[in-house]
Amino acid sequence: MSNKDSNNIKTTIRQIDKVIKASVNSGLDAQQIKTIISAIRTINQTTSSLQLSAFATRGLSKMREDYATQLLNQRGDLTVEITQILLVLDIIADGFDIALELLIRRIWLHRLPVPPIAQWLWDQGLTETINWGVLPNTMQRIAVENRYVAVNVALTLSAFYTNKTREWMDSIATMAIVPLLLNEARIGSINCALYIESLLAQYWIKLEETEEHYEKCYSLWVETFVEAGEKISRSLPTINTIHYTETDNQMPVIGFFLQQESMLAHVEMLLTALTAVQKQQTKYFVPRVYTLTGNDENMQKAFSAINVEVVSGRNTEIVEGFIKLRSQLHQDKVAALVWISVPNLLAFAKGLGVAPKLIWWSMKFHPTAFEGLDGYFTISHGLKTTSTIMNRSWRIIPTRLTIFSKLTDPGTEKTARKLKQNFGTSVVAGTFSREETIATKPFLSLITKILQKNKQLHWLYTGKKNHLDIQKAIIDAGVSSQASYIGWIDTRLYSQIIDIYVDCWPLGGGVTVTQAMACGKPYVYMTNGGSMVMDTMIADVLVDPEIPQETANKLRQIFGNGEFLLAAIDENQYMQFVQKLIEDVEFRRVVGNAYRTWTEKFMTDSSALADIFSNHILQCAKP
Prior knowledge:
Elements: H1 3-26, H2 30-47, H3 54-73, H4 80-94, H5 96-109, H6 118-123, H7 135-141, H8 147-157, H9 166-186, H10 190-203, H11 211-218, H12 222-233, E1 253-260, H13 265-279, E2 286-293, H14 297-304, E3 309-311, H15 318-331, E4 334-340, H16 346-352, E5 358-361, E6 375-380, E7 386-389, E8 392-398, H17 399-402, H18 413-420, E9 427-431, H19 435-438, H20 441-453, E10 457-461, H21 468-476, E11 483-485, H22 491-494, E12 500-502, H23 511-518, E13 523-526, H24 539-543, H25 549-558, E14 566-568, H26 571-583, H27 585-602, H28 606-621
Parallel strand pairs: 1-2, 1-4, 2-3, 4-5, 5-6, 6-8, 9-10, 9-12, 10-11, 12-13, 13-14
Antiparallel strand pairs: 7-8
Helix pairs in contact: 1-2, 1-3, 2-4, 3-4, 4-5, 5-7, 5-8, 7-9, 9-10, 12-16, 13-28
């Protein structure tokens, strides 16, 4: 470094020092913050890095430590802005890895609130110049009483919670968060590693709803959790395996596992399947539901109404919860445990040997990373009972039967008519799904084009929150007055309000789609041959040689030999279907009636559901 550069840095440090000292008692205002950031940028440009020379570092480090001491002694005056500046000074003085460690230690030792600094760092352009790969090593050096706190600070700092761009999340997840998970597992912090897995599922995995993405993600850590579970199991008492045989006079006990008590869609599907089983005169097995955590009275009442016991978990630590569950299942002589839907924690439970037989009922995707389970169940709207997905054999629980009791709600017709009046003479289209499945670029691009072309069309969309990408798409297209976010609503009610159901892709609807069909609403979707969309329910059946000819003929009759089945092969055809439904009221009525007839004839056989469901379970429960 030249003498000129050194002098420039020294001058800049003095400027920062002057502003900071003046602000300790009075607080930083916006202009002072800008001054410090500008000075920091000057140093960065001079040195072409975030690491100063030893000469500059010594002066800045002393100033930084004096300043930190004063801040921590004035807890009441501590502001987010000052914390942010302190962090940046740490980065310049010691590099990002040490700065991260200092921040986490300070927050933990002094019980400071975690500052929402991620977006600030992003806005300053500092995230691009930081090597986030140091995060796992930083975390490994830190030994704190509660590692969850340290993890949350680290993830907050990395913009993991706030920045939703796919490029950034892919980068930060693979470079920092997954290695952090693996490090936590490696040092024996299994609870924290499992906690990170749940965060990855919530904030990263669900950003792309495809089979390939789920497979890529889970394969990164599944083996680690299986090994962790096996290691812990070797320290536990040996549990005698309970086998079920068809010659047993006593019905086997079959457990159904939910991570959390709720009445979400996957729980509703389980409830409907068990309702069908319990209604049969011939009993197949004794069902019992086990949960890891939660206390949902509505769920407990719903299962109690069909004489199914719910054994509720009350554990804060995941590992302890599964050890207790393992013991409880042995005590209850459970022959097999059916794991419902969510794949998080499944690999660890498998390694732990939580049950004599472990069956996974996936209601979404089918990553092959989960090896060695005793059964693989999935859902499909078609007529088959088995299928090969991602090169693995799956037993199918027909969703067309699991939703037979939840399709319509006649008691809300008056309310629906009143709500419909809010849209005047508009044709109303609807997409009722989770916000992240709706917020895909191809679907948003097409739906906004349709709205631009048809000023008489109004689009309703759902979600637990109003997704920013959806808002931006309708605003940029100039159609925000034609679109309404309606939140997390009663979909049976709103199915009566819409005139057309426009489905999103690549992940289409399920229960909400069939509710709209049952209300006689035409349904347009993008066919892709996957197991999770409606083409497996009807379109594939029309050409599948394994389906009985009598059934295929009934379907052809209902759907006018396919004319009234609006399964688009590309975006152009999708738009043509919607356009015709908007312009042709009679076509809209005929297509809607076809879908309603389908639900009436093919979605009301609870006896068939009980037979298929129970047979799958008993086949997998045998030794």
